[in-house]
Amino acid sequence: MNPLRSSVLSALLPPGVVVVGTRVGLPVLAMATLRLSSSSSFFAYQQQKVGLTAPQRPPSSFASTSPPPPLVVCSIPDRHHLPLSHSSAEASSGRISLGFCTRQSVGFCTRQQSWNRNLAVVAAAASVTEVGGGGSSSTISREEVVREDDPTNNVPDTVFGKIGLQLHNRKSHPLGILKNAIYSYFDETFPGVFHKVDNLLPIVSVKANFDDVLTPPDHVSRSYNDTYYVTADTVLRCHTSAHQAELLRQGLTHFLVTGDVYRRDAIDATHYPVFHQMEGLRVFTQQEWEAAGMDGTALAAQELKKTLEGLARHLFGDVQMRWVDTYFPFTDPSYELEIFFQGKWMEVLGCGVTEQQILCNNGCAGTTAWAFGLGLERLAMVLFDIPDIRLFWSNDSRFTSQFKSGQLGTKFKSFSKYPPCYKDISFWISDEFSENNLCEIVRGIAGDLVEEVVLIDEFTNPKKGKTSHCYRIAYRSMERSLTDDEINALQAEVRQQVESKLKITLR
Ligand code: DAH
């Protein structure tokens, strides 16, 4: 980094903000515009987001043992433009391995999983029923995941209800179609080489989710405000990178891991607390880099770019691409791949050359590797023209019947656009206030009927030293018209719960 720019920037930043990386150019606020849902760049992004707002505490009912993280601004990208040629997406088929769940318990079909328990269960409507799927079986009950009396647990029922649905394993669901299209690319490019894993339990240890991929102890992604904690030592995975170390230890050297991931977040058309990611990792041996006449890192970086450019062409056709330098705790160098699609630059995935420490700690000393992570919803929203992330969860046949196995890029036709209804809520905040906690309450009450929660007004009364926020909540069903009575009842409940749970004063 230019030392002059660095010191000028540092002087402008609040105390505690650390400037990391080799280039810092864009104003911190501008970085916020890079934020997109289901993003593969959570870790990169989190580094930027904290530059915008103070670290947020869990709500009073959630104990936080972690100190507020230091603020970090990460390196700003270099941009390279790569004109690329066309390749069409291949139809593909994949096995379906559906998990089912009731609100009481969930089941998974697994070959390998992270919890030392082999799960292979279908939870039927009222009672739990075991189904086939190799090995012993077990269930996860609501009580294991939603612990209202445990201050270290912050998993709401709305989120528990999503565990086990495995949208990515439904062959005719947009997420399943996309997953299979990516599988096809790897199968065609590297026949028989990549091992595919798509049924790992989303409840993982804090160690697997954070420590094993070198997430610093004070990284903001570990906070209760951003991650769902089941216990102090287990979380709902916030990225599929949580499985890297475990799969390396199992001896896998070429793998793709797909699964549902969970993050506490804002509410809008592109953010949902549960979404899906695919992680890829490929190990290189010394023999391979010597044969290529390169050093191990250079070979991994070169192969990474070649492989992922090919993947982007496979999915998007003849698009312009660029590589953007970024920061992830688990890779160095780290990049994001962007494509120029529908008139704008869009981040497709995050990736990089795996940190040596991860390889050494997990039985792969003396090797190098590339790794990537991509958000399936984000890509599926543009590939299938799906305007709202809630639609992925819809069981309405007017949605589900529009997609066919193997048909990537069928354009979704809106079956009807019901009008939104807006309701405002204003209150004086306290120091503990966090927007994610507000959103969780609204989602807990309105479920998928809430489309957006936006801060529309904010001011501080200097005499009282108090700050007021006004949020506008957009209620809209994707499937039907809502009645005034229904919305008023939801809003009344929101007001009541916000007041009782968030330590704010309604205005
Ligand atoms: N885990 C990252 C995220 O969720 C995505 C990612 C970036 C995965 C780089 C990787 C990687 O394996 O190398 O934001």
UniProtKB/TrEMBL annotation:
Domain FDX-ACB: from-to ranges: 416-507
Pfam families, sorted: FDX-ACB (PF03147), tRNA-synt_2d (PF01409)
UniProtKB keywords: Aminoacyl-tRNA synthetase, ATP-binding, Ligase, Mitochondrion, Nucleotide-binding, Protein biosynthesis, Transit peptide
Stretches for region Disordered: 133-153
Lineage, uppermost ranks: Eukaryota, Viridiplantae, Streptophyta, Embryophyta, Bryophyta
Aminoacyl-transfer RNA synthetases class-II family profile domain location: 259-420
Family of this protein: Belongs to the class-II aminoacyl-tRNA synthetase family.
Comp. bias (Basic and acidic residues): 141-150
Subcellular location: Mitochondrion matrix
PROSITE patterns given in the database record: AA_TRNA_LIGASE_II, FDX_ACB
Transmembrane segments: none
Name assigned to this protein: phenylalanine--tRNA ligase
EC number: 6.1.1.20
Catalytically driven reaction(s): tRNA(Phe) + L-phenylalanine + ATP = L-phenylalanyl-tRNA(Phe) + AMP + diphosphate + H(+)
Coiled-coil region list: none
InterPro entries, sorted: aa-tRNA-synth_II, aa-tRNA-synth_II/BPL/LPL, Fdx_antiC-bd, Fdx_antiC-bd_sf, Phe-tRNA-synth_IIc_mito, Phenylalanyl-tRNA_Synthase
